[in-house]
Amino acid sequence: MRFGTIAEWLVILVPLLCVLLVILGIAGVFALPFGLGTSEPAKDSIGSGNLSQEPLGQPQVFHKTIGNWQYTLTANYRYTIQAKVVGIRNYADTGFEQIVPVDFAVAYGDVLKPEYFSYFNFTVNDRKLLTTLTYPDYVRMLSDDYWFSHTSNNHLVFANPEVRRAAETISVGDCIAAKGYLVDISGYQDSSRLYHLKTSTSRFR
User: Would you call 157 helix, strand, or coil by DSSP?
Assistant: First the structure.
């Protein structure tokens, strides 16, 4: 049995504002979902999937107000994702972290292959993804570095309530495709209550 905690790559995304035929809209414009609501292996639906980030020519800044909190979100990278949702955690925080109401944990690459995927167990807890890997001695398993870099916990920021409600239709096991941004967040309620959360751009230990 092997254990690994994915705490470094805490990806924060802000939706792109786009007028397209979109069913879902999490952390960016979600393209038409792949295999939504099915228990079929994700590899059959999205190939091996992919997570990628692309530096922006210049930072893009967004502003958002929730309750009496004011937030500034600064994006330096564009982010795309095609992956299988392996964990979801909603948070009822009414304070500074209400800007990030839900985490989606995802996996892609060879992790999704049936001969490997069945040995993984994923749990999202307190903004972290706990991955438990249990397999027989005779199985040649993926290396720790490989599966660590092909799973991630994504902190999601939504452009509007409609997008948030659409996100609620997604379940663990669904295959998704999306575009958005990686953002750093700064928030304040008053001069004595400040909040900062910086995104990570690394998927490795």
Answer: coil
> Within 10 Å of residue 164's Cβ, how many Cβ atoms?
16
Distance CA 170, CA 160 (A): 17
DSSP string, 135-202: --TTS-PPPHHHHHHTEEEEEE--SSHHHHHHHTT--TT-EEEEEEEEEEEEEEEETTEEEEE-----
User: What's this model's pTM, rounded to 2 decimal places?
Assistant: 0.74
**Over the stretch 28-63, which tens digit does the pLDDT of each residue have?**
222 223 333 333 444 444 556 788 889 999 999 999
Under a CB-based contact definition with an 8 Å cutoff, are residues 152 and 9 in contact? Answer: yes
The answer to whether 154 and 108 have CB atoms below 8 angstroms apart is no
Structure token digits, residue 89: 């955690």
Q: What is the DSSP letter of 100?
A: S
C-alpha to C-alpha distance for 160 and 45, rounded to whole angstroms: 28
The alpha helices in 64-177, defined as continuous H runs, are: 114-117, 144-149, 161-167
- The model's pLDDT over 79-113, given as tens digits with 9 standing for 90+, comes to 888 999 999 999 887 777 888 899 999 999 999 99
